[in-house]
Amino acid sequence: MDKIALNKMEFYGYHGVFQEETKLGQRFIIDLEVEADLQQAGTTDNLEYSINYGQLYFDVKEIVEGEPLKLIEAVAEAIAKKMLNSYNRIQSVMVRVIKPDPPIPGHYQSVSVEILRKR
Fold first, then answer.
1. What is the rounded CA–CA span in Å between residue 109 and residue 105?
2. Catalytic residue among 8, 81, 99, 118
3. Residue 104's CB: how many other CB atoms inside 10 A?
4. Is 82 an active-site residue?
5. What is the radius of gyration, based on Cα positions, of the chain?
6. Which of 5, 45, 118, 119 could form a disulfide with 33 if both were Cys (CB 3.0 to 4.6 A apart)?
7. Sheet holding 92-99: strands in order across?
8. What range(s) does the Dihydroneopterin aldolase/epimerase domain occupy (predicted)?
9. Domain boundaries, the chain
10. 2-118 maps to which CATH number?
């Protein structure tokens, strides 16, 4: 299956379990990969047969910068659900939500959740 990927999209949101996360907010980095048959788009050079990745970006932005959720798992599920419900061409979606600065002690680059959902 063909893929469209949007890598390392960065947003500021208010998701988290701890009060300071929902009050101060933090950065979230999102990787999105959707699988769809893109052959007709490639042979016709017509966006009608593809998925507008600009619109995918704005759909993700709306969720991450929107209503706060407690878990990054819930953020990932909301994004996957939006993709599958909004775009009939999408057969599967992988969402990775990366939290580069979670409020936990220690030395690490980030924490993340990755989900894969299919029709």
1. 12
2. 99
3. 9
4. no
5. 15
6. 5
7. 2-13, 26-36, 92-99, 111-118
8. 4-117
9. 2-118
10. 3.30.1130.10
